Amino acid sequence: MLTLFHSSLATVLLATALPDTVVREAYVMGTVLRIKVEAASDVEAFRSAEAVLAEVERLDGLLSTWDPASEMSRLNRATPGTPTAMNAEVAALLFEVEEWTRETGRAFDPAVGALVDAWDLRGAGRIPGPDELDAVSRATGSRGMAIDRRDTTSTRQDARAWIDTGAFGKGAALRSARRILAGSGASRAFLDLGGQALVWSRGVSAPTPRSVWVAHPDQRSTATIRLDLDGVSVATSGTSERFVDVGGRRLGHILDPRTGFPAPAWGSVTVVHADPMVADVLATALYVMGPVEGLAWAEKRGTAALFLLETAGDIEPSWTTSMEAWLGPATIPSTQWQ
Ligand code: AMP
Ligand code: MG
Predict the structure, then answer these.
(1) Cα-to-centroid distance, 222 and ligand 1 (Å)
(2) Rounded to an integer, what distance in angstroms lies between the CA atom of residue 236 and that of residue 307?
(3) Which end of the chain has less Cβ packing within 10 Å, N or C?
(4) For ligand 1, is residue 160 a contact (CB within 6 Å)?
């Protein structure tokens, strides 16, 4: 809105009463980042949006496992057996992740790179034999990659070991973006980073929460359940959209580190959490646990989680008590993101 440049009193009042909005889209972290920012002026809104994009790009530069120049790629390439000093920010994230690995009984463990390779999940897919699977499983987790908290080093214990940031990188980037928004001139923002969203507003809750639709696990363009959100992030994990077909077997991109096998395709899980990184971590962890173990785990810990279980041609939703605060009317709408 450029109404500030008009001279009539009525327009000036309108311009000061209503925030200006900037919408920005960019390709980053291997996906699309959509930014919508409101601020007192269009210049402020534009600045905030650019700062958010720069921050997500910075996190990608630290965490990408696709970019050979990233800090994470450097650690993943280190000579096995040699402790390698870690960038402090990446180290802090890996320490945090390690705690989630423990908390989730290893349903969440990004040190599964050797298994990603064994199943060729980044290529055409293949089925490893039991002996290979056994050997490769020993190159995952802390047996594959040892993180030392005292001297902030990581040591690859095996030439096949590497850390896959795919399950927490977007959440970590949205968390950093939230910090940038807090220090900017923005009053409200909505970020969508490849399906994980952040609904942010300054100070007290916005008078109108933002509606975010949870997609059907199998059809991304079909919305199912409405969430009315403010001051939180929402992350969804599922395998229906990302898989490889090998000899009629469908291998999803989420692995169960406890078994070494890809987690079965059963539907999707959506987590709402104030901390975007926790939302990302727990959506993946609960997907691995599945709708029964996952629901019990999330309920016990007060995690807001929604499970969509695919049954013959239908979906069966279930959710934890703390999810109820965010659930809108459970109608099936005709459009997805509103
Ligand atoms: P998400 O889409 O957030 O559920 O993350 C899935 C991505 O995380 C996969 O594409 C892998 O890169 C990686 N990953 C797979 N299985 C796990 C797991 N059990 N724990 C942590 N990361 C995983
Ligand atoms: Mg995740």
Answers:
(1) 23
(2) 10
(3) C
(4) no
- pLDDT value, residue 199: 97
CA end-to-end span of the chain:
21
Pocket lining: 166 vs ligand 1, CB cutoff 6 Å: yes
Report pLDDT for 13.
41
Q: Which atom of ligand 1 is nearest to the CA of 287?
A: 4
List beta partners, residue 310: 315
What number of other Cβ atoms are within 10 A of residue 71's Cβ? 17
Output the pLDDT for position 142.
94
* Residues 6+ positions from 27 with CB-CB distance below 8 Å: 33
Q: What is the block-wise mean pLDDT of the chain (338 residues), using blocks of 10 residues?
A: 37 56 96 97 97 98 97 98 98 98 98 97 93 96 96 97 98 98 97 96 79 91 92 92 75 94 95 98 98 98 97 92 89 40
Amino acid sitting at position 141: G
Q: Which two tokens stand for residue 285?
A: 């962890």
- Centre of ligand 1 from the C-alpha of residue 283, in Å: 10
Mutate to test the pocket of ligand 1, among 103, 137, 241, 253 (most ligand atoms within 8 A of CB): 253
Task: Please report the pLDDT score of residue 312 as a whole number.
Answer: 85
Contact 196, 225 (CB under 8 A): no
Go through the domains of the chain in sequence order and give each one's CATH number.
Answer: 1-65+168-202 (no CATH), 71-163 (1.10.3980.10), 208-338 (3.10.520.10)
Q: Running DSSP on this structure, what letter comes out for residue 327?
A: B
- Per DSSP bridges, beta strands 304-311 and 314-319 are antiparallel
Q: How many residues does the structure list for the chain?
A: 338
